[in-house]
Write a structure and sequence with these properties.
Helix 1 crosses helix 2, helix 5 packs antiparallel against helix 6 and helix 9 runs antiparallel to helix 10. About 70% of the residues lie in helices and about 0% in strands. The protein has about 230 residues and is mostly helical. The longest helix has 28 residues.
Length: about 230
């Protein structure tokens, strides 16, 4: 075969390359817009409002994120990783009670910094597997924190991991209700709750009310992940 007869590799199609760059640009714009919208309005914000914020058509948004859960998972992927990493950091603290309380304050602070994330932590998204995997990772880490704090004699023996879910739900509500008016109110709630988790004074033997079952809390989180119309 002569050199002239050799197959010459086809040059990249400039128009196709341009489309790929444009698609990536649109995806980045959508994610940035969704972060702003969710932080401001919560994740109940419509897909249409995200598209408007991003300056793209609704069809473009759905082409990148066919379902709301897909968009939520992409927006909060990094934050959920930070959430999971917080448990690892807390477990590294040689003081079990300090690690336990630091973790709770850190996670609740993350909720306060982002209304959307405040809501994500109180909902479940079964089809968003990566998101739920990070939630499970954080849950396992928190379970270890609970065991350590109890073994150290600092955490009430009747405390359960479901109590953290209750706190996150309450904190999300306080954040949503007080945003702009009393943005530090969540710290009061968290401080009071941490005190209630500590082993009580020996003179006070009044037990905490029983925690809800994991099944009941899961149902509540499923309900919260639905739109208001779907809940009716």
């Amino acid at each position: 075969m002569t050199p002239a007869a050799r197959r010459v590799p086809a040059s990249p199609d400039p128009s196709a390359q341009g489309l790929r760059i444009d698609a990536r640009h649109n995806r980045d714009r959508i994610l940035a817009a969704a972060r702003r919208v969710y932080a401001r309005d919560g994740i109940e914000a419509s897909m249409a409002s995200v598209a408007r914020e991003a300056g793209v058509g609704i069809a473009t948004l759905f082409r990148h994120f066919p379902a709301r859960e897909d968009l939520v998972a992409a927006v909060f992927a990094d934050t959920m990783q930070t959430y999971a990493d917080a448990a690892t950091t807390a477990l590294a603290d040689p003081d079990p009670w300090r690690g336990f309380t630091w973790y709770i304050e850190t996670v609740c602070g993350m909720q306060a910094a982002d209304r959307g994330f405040a809501e994500v932590l109180t909902m479940t998204f079964p089809s968003a597997r990566a998101l739920e995997a990070k939630r499970d990772e954080a849950y396992r880490g928190f379970s270890d924190l609970v065991v350590r704090a109890k073994e150290a004699g600092r955490l009430r023996p009747e405390f359960t991991t479901e109590d953290l879910v209750i706190l996150l739900m309450a904190n999300a509500g306080v954040i949503a209700a007080t945003a702009g008016a009393a943005p530090e109110a969540w710290r009061r709630l968290v401080g009071c709750m941490i005190q209630s988790y500590a082993v009580p004074d020996p003179a006070n033997t009044e037990p905490l009310p029983p925690a809800p079952t994991p099944t009941a809390l899961y149902r509540a989180m499923i309900r919260l992940s639905r739109t208001p119309a779907e809940r009716r």
